[in-house]
Amino acid sequence: MIKSHRLILAACFSCMLPFGAFSEVPIVDDSENFALLEDQQEVLEQPIARQQADFPENDEESPLAYDEPEAASNTASNRDNAALLDKIQNLQQEVQELRGQLEVQAHDLKLLQEQQLAFYKDLDSRLHNNSPVQTAKKDITIDKPEPVKKTTSINNPTPVPDRVPASVSGNAIHANPADEQISYLAAYELIKNKKYDEATNAMQTYISQYPQSGYAANAQYWLGELYMLKKDYPKAIEHFEAVLQQFPSSSKSAASLLKIGYALAASGKNNEAKQRLQQVIKNYPDTNTAQLATTKLRSLDI
Fold it and tell me: Signal sequence span per UniProt (predicted)?
């Protein structure tokens, strides 16, 4: 019995040991750790809050960025736009004038080529057919031994050779465009070299020598341009009018009419200038000259 009681007590004591072990396990309180984490979070949150305070959202700052008066900004932009528009119009006018000059020079070059070709053809025909002057001389020498000289002393054949070569040489000069071409190109070269006084004299000499030549209209036009440079507007108008009256089908007609409008406007005769410019637009529509006339009309209306 005693042994049995001991065994029972020992068994009970062994069963109670685990409960004792479990009761001695320490209880961990994480509240302090949470408190530290919260403090650290507050410390970390403070710089972020400061950064947010230092850098507010862009939506709140945008009105401050445009704090200038709206009227002042509109006025400045309008001035800039007006200045830019004036520059563009001036550039367009310069481009149109350059195009007109290119067209004129292209026409002049074509005319020179045609006349040069005609000159070479005439020269070639003379070389193949022997010169007309030589044939005339041969004909004259043939006419000398006529029996009329023996029978009658009234008809003297000696003046005949003197008159015939004179007429032949005169026709040869008029048929040969080389002199006209050389004289005109020499005068035009003076214009390109800006020797305006010499060019004026050369063009006037050319017109007096070759009033009906193929370059007469060009010479009259360039005389008008030269007098425009000298601001002698009445003489400029006189030469431009000569192109319109004497050479109405010339390529210089449109430019001459336009320059008459320019000269009248420069002389203060705006009403007459407007009439001439309107004639340019009417007579030469859809051309660069008409565009220049339109631009000039707008400037006169301002």
Answer: 1-23
